[in-house]
Specification:
heterodimer, A: alpha/beta, OB fold (Dihydrolipoamide Acetyltransferase, E2P), five-stranded mixed beta barrel, about 15% helix, about 30% strand, globular, B: alpha+beta, eleven-stranded mixed beta sheet, two-stranded antiparallel ribbon, 14 helices, 15 strands
Chain lengths: ~150, ~425
């Protein structure tokens, strides 16, 4: 029997205390001068600027959820997409820092989907999981096995 | 009356008016060919673009625009505005998040086909279509400084074989007044056809690009280029110090957003890193307006075709009153008359649409190689499909629906006239 999907807000992906942690990180970083160095140095410094952590909400693992967001395709085959990132705002790859790992969902579509435009929000439904790999390099903390994709 | 009889009558009636019938048929055929053709070319072009590259997480180049970068680096359309430094390339390639990179150096051509400076990473890591790798029809990757590997179409169209000597031109024009003529290249490999712009490219090593530009530092050929012969140039240090773009494959796809951000904010050099899927989506968004306009226009043409069918039935209605009376005298009910006219419209629509589709397939088969040669787009999926069937059936349905108006008038006439007609 299929479990009824729970409609999630992006804030629900943040464990309790995350907001306080982010505020703390912001306070520290604002007092630091911007670094100027090699790509590796910059990246390391920028990591610290990427607020947020890999902290996840354990109870969400394995739950069927619905989440609205924007698609960042991980392949050029837009009519036959097998994997994409779901992010809370459009332009996650533009001028602002990308969303933190626990506000990014790596979506796997076993049945490839067709997306018309990355400018339109979508609602993804599927089984949410805590990502198995947790690197310090800014990946996503959550994964979703996609069941349905609805254009909004 | 039975359907078979009515169908027979419908055909006979059309045959009787074969001149106007043929013209109506042609109008319908043309409108269907146009409408379906627009859609097919649109889908074909998109499919073609989508199978050009797979597995590339980021494309990096000097700062320009995302669509530009995607177009000139992957689709070999358009030009770069500036190069990026080799130092940045090495830094990015050695980043722990990066699995592989393919450097690309563009700017030269041979008889209009683009020359790409790259290294063995292209043959090892480039993927297209359904994750296919580049394979050699004959020969092997370049090893010597002046070796060149040809794309399938370059070899076929220019008739080159392994061992041939070719001279590269400076710049991208089909005819160049500036050749690197004292440094000929030897064909050592020919790739299998991929259906991507790789077929229309020539691949050489990065040091080779440096070698042929010795003496060209001013932008034009100086005597130094002639003095430095192919042999003399081998002894120089030909390590590249710049390149046009690079394709990046990451160890973990999820890191793409962060990696892109780091590259776009890289302080040492103004770079642009794009996610190919995003850039392509932007391209379709830009082109989409024109596409929709074209679809709307061709839909109007279909409407015109339908009106032509309607007119052809309406105008002959009066003359056919005696014909209808005769039919009634042999047992046709007024309802049969109605049905007959609707059927006629459906038959014209069916035959017209069929003819239009056949003309379209023939036309596309003839045009596809031309489009590929001129625009580098290999249209995919040009055969019959579900869309064609939907168009056919919908057209028949619409024609039948529209024919109900004259058919009803004929029905009324048949009732009123009885068996004697005063025309």
């Amino acid at each position: 029997m299929a479990e009824t999907p729970a409609s999630l807000e992006w804030a629900a992906l943040l464990p309790p205390g995350e907001a306080a942690e982010i505020a703390r990180q912001q306070a520290i970083t604002l007092s630091r001068a911007a670094p100027h160095g090699s790509l590796a140095d910059d990246a390391r410094a920028m990591s610290e600027l990427q607020f947020g952590t890999f902290n996840t909400v354990r109870s969400l693992h394995g739950r069927r959820v619905r989440l609205k967001g924007y698609i960042v395709p991980l392949d050029v085959r837009l009519t036959h997409l097998e994997a994409f990132l779901l992010v809370p705002f459009f332009g996650a790859c533009l001028h602002a820092p990308p969303p933190p790992p626990n506000q990014t969902v790596f979506v796997r579509a076993r049945k490839p989907v067709k997306i018309d435009s990355v400018y339109r929000p979508v609602e993804s439904q599927g089984i949410l999981r805590i990502a198995r790999q947790s690197s310090e390099m800014g990946a996503s903390a959550y994964e979703l096995d996609l069941e349905t994709l609805k254009r909004l | 009356m039975r359907l078979a009889t009515l169908l027979n009558l419908a055909f006979r009636s059309l045959l009787n008016r074969r001149v106007t019938g043929a013209l109506t048929l042609m109008a319908v055929a043309l409108s269907v060919a146009l409408f379906t053709g627009v859609e097919k070319v649109r889908q074909g072009a998109r499919a073609s673009f989508e199978r050009t590259v797979s597995g590339a997480d980021l494309i990096v180049g000097a700062r320009s625009g995302p669509i530009n970068l995607l177009l000139y680096s992957i689709f070999r359309v358009g030009d770069a505005t500036a190069n990026m430094t080799w130092r940045s390339y090495e830094e990015i390639a050695s980043d722990p998040r990066v699995a592989w990179t393919i450097p690309l150096s563009l700017g030269d051509a041979h008889k209009g086909y683009r020359v790409v400076g790259t290294d063995e990473n292209l043959f090892e890591h480039y993927r297209f279509g359904e994750d296919q790798t580049l394979t050699f029809a004959s020969g092997e990757p370049f090893r010597d400084l002046f070796d060149v590997v040809l794309g399938a179409e370059v070899a076929r169209n220019l008739g080159y074989r392994i061992g041939d000597d070719i001279v590269l031109s400076h710049g991208l024009g089909e005819v160049s007044f500036a050749d690197h003529d004292n440094k000929p290249f030897k064909v050592v490999g020919i790739l299998e056809a991929t259906g991507t712009p790789i077929d229309r490219s020539l691949n050489v090593s990065l040091p080779a690009i440096e070698a042929i530009h010795v003496g060209w530092e001013t932008g034009a050929k100086t005597p130094l280029a002639t003095i430095m012969t192919a042999d003399r140039v081998r002894s120089l240090d030909l390590k590249p110090d710049e390149l046009t773009a690079m394709i990046v494959g990451l160890k973990s796809r999820g890191t793409v957003l962060k990696m892109q951000r780091d590259l776009n904010t890289y302080r040492e050099e103004p770079l642009l890193a794009v996610i190919p899927g995003i850039a392509l989506s932007q391209l379709w968004e830009t082109v989409g307006i024109a596409e929709r306009l074209l679809s709307a226009v061709s839909a109007c043409v279909i409407a015109v075709g339908l009106v032509v069918i309607l007119v052809s039935i309406l105008t002959t209605l009066n003359e056919r009153r005696r014909e209808m009376a005769i039919l009634r005298s042999v047992g046709a009910a007024p309802g049969d008359i109605f049905f007959l006219l609707v059927l006629e419209a459906a038959v014209i629509a069916f035959l017209g649409a069929l003819l239009g589709l056949l003309v379209l397939y023939a036309g596309l088969m003839g045009l596809a190689p031309l489009i590929q040669a001129r625009a580098g787009v290999s249209l995919v999926g040009l055969g019959p499909g579900v869309f064609d069937l939907v168009v056919l059936v919908t057209l028949m349905g619409l024609a039948s629906f529209m024919a109900m108006f004259p058919a009803w008038r004929a029905f009324r006439n048949a009732l009123a006239d009885g068996l004697t007609v005063r025309v």
